[in-house]
Write the structure tokens for this entry.
Amino acid sequence: MARNDILGHPLSIEFIIYKTDPKGCGVNVIRGFFLLDKYRFFALINKIFMIDYHVHPYYSIDAEGTVEEYCIRAIEIGMEELCFTPHFDIDPERKELDDKVKLKDKIVTMKSNWIEKYIEDVELARKRYSLEIKIGIEVGYDSNIENELRNILKTYPFDFVLGAIHNIDHISISDKKECGQYFKNKSPEEVCGSYFTLMENAIKSGLFDVIAHFDIYKKYGWEYYGEGLAKSQKPYLRSILTLVAENEVGIEVNTSGLRKPVNEIYPAEDILELAKKLGVKIVTIGSDAHKVEDLGKGLKKAEELIEKTGFEIYRYRGRKPYR
């Protein structure tokens, strides 16, 4: 492309460098241009964050979009890295509800060979697309399945393992249709007490790199308890965040709450501020996308919150954190 074409190109950016002459005889001016491809330009002008560490491809029964479709979308919005995190839920008490994975045109069980296919799809995408693509998984925690989870997580070459508490007393608190079965019969104090007991066990288990959507109980719980939830969580936050720091576990900053009536990031700002004071070092960032069009949504707000509370965003490779 000729210089005159670049100068007039709508995706060109001019740079000027002013360099003082070492002999004190004035200033040298270096002027040039570089040309952005349309996807990086789109990302620049929209300030889209370039990392998403919570992405659900179609294997998850509640998700849509193949690994390839997400990768194409990631390139379209200028994303540099994404980590897939399909659900893995094997609580035997919820077998009929949760023991389902989509594999092409079939529904298979969680303990079938779908993870091998998932890894194959990611490896193929790594060869095909100029993206950093990580193999992650979001594991539903319950204390009665720790040993089984430990064996499964050792079997596969995961880069990143999110630990999630979706259920209390084997009832989903993160599902709109199901959560009322639990919330209607519990006080906010009981909800937070049970939730943070599970989280304490999850952290101590050593199974997880990062705790997903830290205060997920507010997703639908706020409709039942309002500000009662925020008050009821306070007695538990200092001890649980100290435990997070001591065990070198991370906290996910998850933007999916911005797409729900609660309209908040998980966790709330005051929780992140306290986490920082208590020595938590690792945070990751994720949209929790369950469909391709939600990839990257809200990450700019999450980035601003992370910066405001004094954290830096971590990535993972082979279960090891790095920046």
Q: What stands out?
A: Residues 1-48 have pLDDT under 50 and may be disordered. The longest strand covers residues 12-20.
